[in-house]
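re: ur question from yesterday

yeah so i grabbed the chain u mentioned. its 88 aa long if i counted rite. heres the sequnce exactly as i have it in my notes:
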Amino acid sequence: MTEGLFLVSLVDQTSENIICPLQAIAAGATAATRCYTSFLNSFRKEDTKKLPDRIDEDNEHFFLMAAFSLGRVLHRCAIRVDKNTSDR
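ran it thru and got these structure tokens back, copy pasting raw so excuse formatting
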């Protein structure tokens, strides 16, 4: 039931048609991946472009949540692609 509510909220403003469920999932996953990656890259050192050995305590929770969320999005999309291609 929640999937239907989610898809109804994703309306194409130009044609007032509901976006295809797979397109909506792909668009959401792409946007999430882009945002999580951008946030994680903001912790890179400017001179070496590498992540520090340790994230400061104030930001550690947010960094770890973003890293795990990015992994979760990428993992779920990989599973969804595998399931869709095996049905064909």
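noticed a couple things. Helices lie at 2-9, 21-41, 57-86. also The mean pLDDT is 77.
anyway ttyl
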